[in-house]
Every structure is written in C-alpha cells, then in structure tokens.
Design goal:
This protein is an alpha+beta fold and about 575 residues long. Helices cover about 50% and strands about 20% of the residues. Strands 3-5-6-2-1-8 form a 6-stranded mixed β-sheet, with helices on one face. Strands 4-7-10-9 form a 4-stranded antiparallel β-sheet. Mean pLDDT is about 75; it is low at about 55-60, about 65-95, about 115-135 and about 480-490.
Length: about 575
Amino acid sequence: MSFSLCLALMVASLLEITLITNLLCESADFSPVPRWISVLILQFLGFLVCTTQMNKKPRASEIDQMTTTAVSNIEVYEGPQEKKGPAMKNRAVWDLTRVGKDLQDIQHLTQRCQLKVRSSKRLFIFISLLMHAHYGSTMLNCSNPDTPSMLEALMPVFNLKAIRPVVNITTVTNISLFLTVFGIMGVDEKDQLLTTFLWQDVEWENEFTKWDPEECGTSRTSVPRTNIWVPDIIINEIMDENTAPKVPYTYLLSDGTVSDSQPIKAVTSCRLDIYLFPFDIQNCTLSFNSFTLKSNAVQLYLTGTPESMFEYSKSMMATMGEWELIGIAAKKYTLPSTASDFYDIIHFYISLRRQPMIYVVNLLLPSCFLITVDLFSFILPPNDADRSLFKMTLILGYTVFLLIMNDLLPITENDLPLINVFLSLCLAMMVASLLETIVITKFLHSSSHYSRAPRWIRVLVLKILGRLVCLPQKPRDRNDTVIQNPVTQVTEESKTLEQKGPLSEDKALQELWSLGRVLQAIRLQVEQHLSKSLSTEEWIQIGLIIDRLLFILYIIFITVSFITIIIIWVVSYNAA
C-alpha cells in the first residue's frame, strides 16, 4: 500500500511537470487567458503566494507578423540598388522610414509576448505550489485499521533507518531527555568510580511515521528498535560496557513522536572527596550528548525539570546500599566542536550522601571505648599493679581491631580521610600512655638507688606541681627518726650490773667502752638508713606527681583532639 502511494505521488508529480512545461512552451499559440482564470489565479492565488501581476505585453503572433513585414521591406529596399537616379533615391528614403516604424512595432509586440510568457510561468508556479502543499506532508496510509496493515505501511520507513528522519536536511531534530536514577550500586574510592542503574527516556520526531489513528486503528505502536533511526546519545564519563538488559522495542505515536526507553548500568568516573568519610557528600556529573551530530542537526532538551526527575527517582529507587540520593540538577550547554561547529550537551549533577551509621558503630565507638579504658588505667597504682602489661594488652587488641576493620576504610591516594587521622591519633595516644607508664615504673622501682633530689626539683615538683595536681608532700613523723641517747642506755646497763653484784672497776670500764662503741655503730647505721628512706620517699613522691600531671595532660589532649575533629566534621559536612 505504501509503495503504491509513493508511486502514485511520483506519477502525479511527473504529470504536473509535463503539464506546466507544455503550458510554458505553447503559451504563445494560446488565446488570451479568460477573465475568471486571470482573477482567480493571478489575483487571489497570486496574493496568497505573494506574487504580484505585471503589466501586459504584446502577443507572440503579432510579433511574428511584424517581423515578416519588416524583413520583406528590407528585401524590397535591397533589390533595386543597381538603378540610379533621383526617383530611386526618394524610394529608398521612404523604405527606410517604413522599416523604422516596423521595428518600433516589433519592440512593442515583444514586450507583450514576454508578459504572456511570464503569466504562464506564474500559473505554473501557482499550480506547483498547490500540488506540493497537498502532497508535502508524509502520511502513512493503512488499508485496514489493524496491526498487519500498520506494519505494511511502515515497511518503507524501515528502509530509511540509516538517515535522520527529516524531509528537509536542514531541519533540526529536537531530542528530549528524561533521566531516572533507579539504584546506586556502589562507589569505588580507590578507582574513583560510581556505579548506578539509570533509565534513559528519549523522545524525538520522525517525519516519516505519521498516520491517522482512525484509519490505522491505533495511535501508538511498538516496532523493533533496530528498524528505525535512533540518536547516538552517549555518556561521556562511561568507563565500562553497559551490561543492563536491552529493550528491543521502541514506541511510535501517530503524530510522529518516537519514544525510546533504555536501562543503563553506568560505571562512570567521578572525582570523589572522602576527606569527611564517613560523613561525606559526593557530587558526580553525567554528561549526555550526541556522538556524531552537531547542534545544526540535533538539539538536546530536558523533558521535565530536575526537581521532577529527583522526586520520581526517589519514588522509584530500588536500591541505595550505604548511599542516599539527595539531589539531581541539570544544565544544558552549547560547546564549540570545531572552528565553526557547535554541539549540545546536558550535564546531570547527581548528589549522594553516605549513610554513616555502620562506620560509627563499627569504627568510631570501639575506638572511643578503648581510649576510655586506656584513660582509666591511670587509676591503677604504678608501684603496686602491673599497669604496663594492661596497656600493652590494650594496644595489641586495638591493633588487631584495626586490621579486621581495614576493609571498611576507603583507600585513596588523593586525600587522607579525617577518620584515618582519628584512628591514628587513638593509637598514638595509647602508645604514648604505655611509654609514660614504663618511664614512671622504672623511676619508682629504682628510686632507692638515687641520691636525694636537688633542691630546685623538690621546690618545683613537690611544692608547686604537687599542689597543682592535688598531691602535696606528706609531713614526716619525727618519732620514727629519734635515736635514744646511748648514755642513758649505758646508765641503765650499769644499774643492771650493780644489781647483779660488785665487779672490778677495770672490767666495768671495758664493758662500758665496748658497749658505747656498739651503740655508736648502731646509731650510724640507723641514721644512714633514715637518710636513704627520706630520699626514696621524695623520688617516689616526684614520680607520683609526674604521673598525675601526665594523666591530666592526657585527658586534655584527648578532649581537645576529639572536639577539634568533630568540629571539622560538622563544619565541612554543613558546607558541603
């Protein structure tokens, strides 16, 4: 049916050209144009097609008649030139005058003939315009209002799938684009890749696929996608093959609109900023444009607003994983391609926010708990309990914990995530606490071998720092350091001897001198022991004060560090 229609149009066009050609070539032999044709075509139709009527000129038959007369007169003039005399001279003057008048008449007839030819040409233009106005729009004709007839009418269109579907090559094809985000399948921080599942809806006009819905029985039909022209819309950031299932059919509407919908599993490049991990927001760009056609052939437009795309994507979102879609923005650009060509491109800006709960529960809270346990380990007495062993166990456990949770941390060479700084700080604080405990333990257990602390240390540490950390120096008990007088002991010993009985004077003196030397040695030993005990107590007190001071500094440093990291997280998160 479609082939017959095309053949009929070609025959009608040929007949029209034959008719107009014959009208133009034989217009000189026609009688004058009737008045009703002149009024209808030259005035009314001429006004419609913006062609004005020109002044009348002589007919072609009159031109031929005047030309024949002029030629015969010229021959008469040339014949008797051999005759001589005054009579012959007057005859030649009269013939020349007659020829001049005939030439003037020929000029007027020529102008009238040209007018008639131009009028015939205008008639040809009018008829041509009317015929092209009637047959210019391409409409499919269906023999019956059923599907087989519709398919038969579309067969010639399928043969034109290699060209852009426009009658005039200068006509621009407008392509409308609507993007739906169905799922966020993952983000690869190391390779800087974003994997999404998209649905791309594209619409354009095909000037060869228009029909009457009543004649064909439907206003919409589906055809194989490979049988019609489809724009080559690509995503510039694509980094891998589209592995989404293919949709083999495309919908055609009776007004010539083509609706094509395709799923896309897009693995696209995206510059990821993970400094605020796990409280980060990522902004990725998807650029859509035609791969080969420039803006003078194809122009891109948005079917709906970015807000409607975002709302529809939120309602149709099938999977998000750890990511949440928080916004879609779009903007069209016309960029230069070569020195004179331009191409249209549409940028979609997709904003994603990470769900941080899994990282808070699995990374941040355990680290805070272990730091808290390490902080309270300072309560253990350093000279009685083995505090260093306890801290080493904490460091070992935290190291194993970091190794297990290493897969949860992002890997990148561009920016160092703030959470890595936090975890490294926690480990550094534990190591510093262990080193402090080792130093204090060594200091306390070796204090008995040290001499007495210098005076400036006793003043600075025992008096000043001791009061700051609420550990003042304990007053010494004087009764513990008093040594009884040896003379009193000798008198008591003499009285005891007198009670036992009289002794010789020499023997008594020897016993007394011997007893005095023993008592003097005992006194020296006691004084030496008391001096060492005082030095040890001072060094132990100095060690306890330093331990308390480092404990306070440890608390202050952890508090300031955690508050600073939290403020950086909050400020950067709000700024993003």
